[in-house]
């Protein structure tokens, strides 16, 4: 009974995740596209909850809510049509992109059903969150250290790039001065 | 629920994102496509952890890395868009072909 409920929940969430993902590139409002992407992330968070990854599932839900809200703000700042009042399309090479992505899906789907996947080794721990915590504070600590340095480098790089006197800005000044 | 079902979902999310990354003119929309692709990788990594090697935490660590990559990609993407927008008032890929050979 529990298995059936989980299977139904999986397929409903999967259809919603893919449907919302498609909606991102179909709706004619940038704000709606952002919230469609958020819906897709929330469904994936739900999928992770189904396979006992409670911490990572909730992490995705909380993190993506914040990330997509930030993205919505940037959308409103940059895009000409944040409210979706004027239908518009901003695509190039639509047919080529459809062919490549469709071909990639066909190849991946064929691989999913033809590759002999290995047998399951071991059983899920009683608390996967504890296992993850022990891994990243023990044998996988190098991964976490690299992630930490990458986050620091990103913080510095984003400030340098987007600061008023950034690379592009100085280049423009130089160009104007030369003229 | 099976490993194949989860991987099929991951492939679908990845390919929808690939379509967006290839077809969108707006850099911000292109970033949404990239985020969807990483989203597919998150699903695949979680499925591999659960159905292939649940005893080790490797799959969970990979999910953690993928989530971090999503956040870093968005931060760097917006920094680049901001730099471009300041310099030239553009936010489309077609107007940002500086590195084209």
Automatic annotation (TrEMBL), chain A:
Protein known as: NADH-quinone oxidoreductase subunit J
Mode of membrane association: Multi-pass membrane protein
Function of the protein: NDH-1 shuttles electrons from NADH, via FMN and iron-sulfur (Fe-S) centers, to quinones in the respiratory chain. Couples the redox reaction to proton translocation (for every two electrons transferred, four hydrogen ions are translocated across the cytoplasmic membrane), and thus conserves the redox energy in a proton gradient.
Family under the similarity heading: Belongs to the complex I subunit 6 family.
Localization (cell): Cell membrane
This protein's UniProt keywords: Cell membrane, Membrane, NAD, Quinone, Transmembrane, Transmembrane helix, Ubiquinone
Origin species: Actinomadura coerulea
Transmembrane segment boundaries: 6-27, 34-51, 57-78, 98-117, 141-163
Catalytic activity of the protein: a quinone + NADH + 5 H(+)(in) = a quinol + NAD(+) + 4 H(+)(out)
InterPro entries: NADH_UbQ/plastoQ_OxRdtase_su6, Nuo/plastoQ_OxRdtase_6_NuoJ
Enzyme kind, highest EC tier: translocase
GO cellular component, one term: plasma membrane
Top-level taxonomic group: Bacteria
Single annotated GO MF: quinone binding
EC number: 7.1.1.-
UniProtKB/TrEMBL annotation, chain B:
Annotated function: NDH-1 shuttles electrons from NADH, via FMN and iron-sulfur (Fe-S) centers, to quinones in the respiratory chain. The immediate electron acceptor for the enzyme in this species is believed to be a menaquinone. Couples the redox reaction to proton translocation (for every two electrons transferred, four hydrogen ions are translocated across the cytoplasmic membrane), and thus conserves the redox energy in a proton gradient.
Topological category with respect to the lipid bilayer: Multi-pass membrane protein
GO molecular function: NADH dehydrogenase (quinone) (non-electrogenic) activity; quinone binding
Gene (name only): nuoK
Family: Belongs to the complex I subunit 4L family.
UniProt catalytic activity: a quinone + NADH + 5 H(+)(in) = a quinol + NAD(+) + 4 H(+)(out)
Pfam families noted in UniProt: Oxidored_q2
Keyword list, A-Z: Cell membrane, Membrane, NAD, Quinone, Translocase, Transmembrane, Transmembrane helix, Transport
GO terms under biological process: ATP synthesis coupled electron transport
Originating species: Actinomadura coerulea
CC annotations in GO: plasma membrane
Subunit structure: NDH-1 is composed of 14 different subunits. Subunits NuoA, H, J, K, L, M, N constitute the membrane sector of the complex.
Protein name stated in the entry: NADH-quinone oxidoreductase subunit K
EC number(s) on file: 7.1.1.-
InterPro entries: NADH_UbQ_OxRdtase_chain4L/K, NUOK/Mnh_C1-like
Subcellular location: Cell membrane; Membrane
Membrane-spanning segments: 33-52, 61-85
């Amino acid at each position: 009974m529990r298995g059936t409920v989980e299977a139904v929940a999986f397929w409903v969430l999967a259809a919603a995740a893919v449907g919302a993902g498609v909606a991102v590139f179909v709706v004619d409002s940038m704000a709606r596209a952002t919230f469609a992407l958020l819906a897709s992330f929330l469904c994936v968070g739900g999928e992770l909850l189904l396979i006992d990854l409670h911490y990572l599932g909730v992490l995705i839900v909380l993190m993506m809510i914040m990330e997509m809200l930030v993205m919505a703000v940037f959308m409103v700042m940059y895009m000409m049509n944040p409210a979706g009042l004027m239908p518009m399309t901003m695509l190039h090479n639509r047919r080529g992109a459809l062919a490549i992505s469709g071909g990639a899906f066909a190849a991946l789907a064929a691989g999913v059903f033809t590759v002999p996947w290995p047998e399951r080794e071991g059983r899920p721990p009683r608390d996967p969150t504890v296992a993850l915590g022990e891994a990243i504070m023990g044998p996988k600590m190098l991964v976490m250290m690299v992630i930490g340095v990458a986050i620091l480098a990103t913080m510095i790089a984003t400030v340098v790039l987007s600061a008023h006197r950034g690379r592009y800005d100085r280049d423009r000044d130089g160009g104007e001065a030369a003229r | 629920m099976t490993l194949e079902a989860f991987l099929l979902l991951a492939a679908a999310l990845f390919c929808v994102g690939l379509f967006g990354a290839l077809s969108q003119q707006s850099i911000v929309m292109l970033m949404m496509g990239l985020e969807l692709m990483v989203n597919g990788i998150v699903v695949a990594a979680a499925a591999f952890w659960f159905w292939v090697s649940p005893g080790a935490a490797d799959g969970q660590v990979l999910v953690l890395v993928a989530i971090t990559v999503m956040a870093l990609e968005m931060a760097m993407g917006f920094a680049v868009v901001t730099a471009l927008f300041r310099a030239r008032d553009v936010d489309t890929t077609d107007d940002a072909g500086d590195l084209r050979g």
